[in-house]
Amino acid sequence: MASPPENRPRGAGRPRSAAADRAILSATRSALVELGWSALTMSAVASRAQVARTTLYRRWPGKSELVVDAVADLFDERLELPDRGSLAADIEWVVLRFAALLEQPETKTGLMAVLAEATRDEALRARIRSAIVGRQKALVLRGRARAQDRGELAPDPPGDAGARQAARTVDLIFDVVAGSVIHRALVSSEPVDEDWARDFAALVTGGLTGAGPRTG
Amino acid sequence: MASPPENRPRGAGRPRSAAADRAILSATRSALVELGWSALTMSAVASRAQVARTTLYRRWPGKSELVVDAVADLFDERLELPDRGSLAADIEWVVLRFAALLEQPETKTGLMAVLAEATRDEALRARIRSAIVGRQKALVLRGRARAQDRGELAPDPPGDAGARQAARTVDLIFDVVAGSVIHRALVSSEPVDEDWARDFAALVTGGLTGAGPRTG
Amino acid sequence: MASPPENRPRGAGRPRSAAADRAILSATRSALVELGWSALTMSAVASRAQVARTTLYRRWPGKSELVVDAVADLFDERLELPDRGSLAADIEWVVLRFAALLEQPETKTGLMAVLAEATRDEALRARIRSAIVGRQKALVLRGRARAQDRGELAPDPPGDAGARQAARTVDLIFDVVAGSVIHRALVSSEPVDEDWARDFAALVTGGLTGAGPRTG
Amino acid sequence: MASPPENRPRGAGRPRSAAADRAILSATRSALVELGWSALTMSAVASRAQVARTTLYRRWPGKSELVVDAVADLFDERLELPDRGSLAADIEWVVLRFAALLEQPETKTGLMAVLAEATRDEALRARIRSAIVGRQKALVLRGRARAQDRGELAPDPPGDAGARQAARTVDLIFDVVAGSVIHRALVSSEPVDEDWARDFAALVTGGLTGAGPRTG
DNA sequence: CCCTAAGCGAGACGGTACGTCCCGTCTTGCG
DNA sequence: CGCAAGACGGGACGTACCGTCTCGCTTAGGG
């Protein structure tokens, strides 16, 4: 759940309203869709959330951080990976699932804007990774393990070297899957439909089962 | 060369200074690096370019358009693709080449910012595609043709269906290559080094030469 | 002693801390000196008095009232009028005494600020008159009586008309003395020293003993 | 005429609107009357003057300075001193004239507030003296000269000592007249009517013609 | 001796004004 | 007409206080 960091002493003083938190994040998302990043103002969010502007600043340092948290919620939804029978089918499913997320205007606008803002701000980048991107990586891990169980992929070699190699592969797959879908959807402005998903899954599966990355 | 559209009547009055154009675009790039997108102001550009703010507005409608033009220049550099002997080696070379471009702070910041801005603006998105992204696609075409000459990839089937199939594959490869590199560099914040490029190239080559996208 | 009105039911519950009252008024005075009226905030007073902001509001309705009470204390000091032997000497003494009070930064700032605030608020003006200004008038009465005893001034004529006439004169003297000193010290920004006091006393004594106000 | 200092380079750029200046000062005065010092905001002034808030800040650093200039205008009115035939009558006239000024709510509120603010700010105090208070002193000089011509007052002794003595007397009278009237009107909250003016004039004339300040 | 009503600290809350910065437009005067 | 300079109306920013409101914890009487 996305919300401002709660490392406050607690005990003294009136507690913060949890309802306000929810209202603010929700208002941020809807305002983001209607106004876009640059026209999104703290005032707009505040008035939509029926909350004073100061309350926003009490919880978040600025627009970027607020939007990151607001957008992160959207990526919190079900991350289950139903077993579709084969590695290729699993990949297709993930791709379409992710694409559906990027279809939603709020996700699209928010994600890109926040990424752009993060270009110059490593702290923000880290926040994005932990709040949004990182948790998607679990999917890759699960799908890979399942493919190994099925015998589609070779099991990890034992030992430290094997673990390192596995991690490298997971990172690679993750960048390829997420990056390709984002690029297709947001840069090329072409639909990520079933056809594309099938082509993409075939490409990746072929690469993985055929040669696979060579050991460094 | 990026510059403001020149569909002006021409003839009467003092002509616009070409030197100003150059100074402005260059100032925009340097300011973008130092300040980042959001802190980049027209005033800042104007004072760096030793130019009045009015002069900027006479040539570009706003910040986004100015930055797109300024950044586009950077992608105009050499797009040659030396023959490295194999498909995998060619891909590696392209990846590292592109990564080097993204290392430059101006490219990184500018590209992401402009993409984010474009999320809500199809006209801007088109401008980006034609000015920046599109011309990269030529590389993919050339590399693929070369691999077909070498026999690494099957030649395109004849007829319309074959051409469509070829176009689909080119688009796919392009999204995969560009997207993966961008994601690795700008989201995961991990280096796009020779090791990663080799792994990536192996993955893609395996997918292409092994199964390849099935015909829809 | 200045303090918040105590018309509270009394009996049940924890009684208010008298120490807090003292700390608050003292903190108000010191803060007033260091910060001036406009920069003086309830928060500043609270933190100096080691007291919660709420405690202030429980006792005073706002800044003006708090400052009036705090400043009034300063005018509570010794109001004795030693017999200096002549009307002129008595006036000199009063003038220098008052000037010394206005030298103190807390009195100066506080008095003017409170007067300004009172310009639009008759209730506050009344409070000031009764808490601060009014009690100074006793000095004039005493000095005048003494001068009449000495024979420097004519005794009050008997009857109502005489009393009214006496009251008018006292009011006049009071405004002249207080007003002149305040103007010299706070507007002209010139020192109220012994020379000035002597000149002033000479002027007033001359006016009083010579012609004196004619009967209306 | 009160207005922001005009020590700007001049020549380049669009000149400031003089109409705006007038509108702002006038709006300030009316807002001051209706709202009082503390409720007077820059926004209120701006909207009354049909001017952007930034325009205010371009010309004055803050509220205090703006109000000083606005109030100063009111003291710019006719400062003539008609010859009323005697020193006492002249003084009466000046007193009533000044009192009439202080009756106007704008003058009253503005003057006191500005004086209070100036208590802690010598620069502001100087500005007040030069813009408001100082020019009133000319009246005293003229009245005194006229009384000397009439023979009511002794002529100034020649030489430096005489000039110094004259200056001291003028300063004294000025503080006494202005201070007494202000105190009567704004602190005692009593009317400065013809009766009071006559009493006051009698007191001062008596002091001047009778003993007068002794030589230090 | 405990009960209870108030005091008290802390701090969140809805507001409002501040003074600054930038936007995009407009008016100047000089080439 | 281009151009530099800079005023203009407008709007968002982030900060500081305001006066009110909840909290949980003292802390005195009064039963």
Automatic annotation (TrEMBL), chains A, B, C, D:
Domain HTH tetR-type: 18-78
Pfam short name (any one): TetR_N
Keyword Transcription regulation tagged: yes
DNA-binding region ranges: 41-60
InterPro entries assigned to the protein according to its UniProt record, in alphabetical order: Homeodomain-like_sf, HTH-type_TetR-like_transc_reg, HTH_TetR, Tet_transcr_reg_TetR-rel_C_sf, TetR_C
Keyword terms: DNA-binding, Transcription, Transcription regulation
Alphabetized PANTHER family for the sequence: HTH-TYPE TRANSCRIPTIONAL REGULATOR RUTR, TRANSCRIPTIONAL REGULATORY PROTEIN (PROBABLY TETR-FAMILY)-RELATED
Protein name: TetR/AcrR family transcriptional regulator
Source organism per UniProt: Streptomyces sodiiphilus
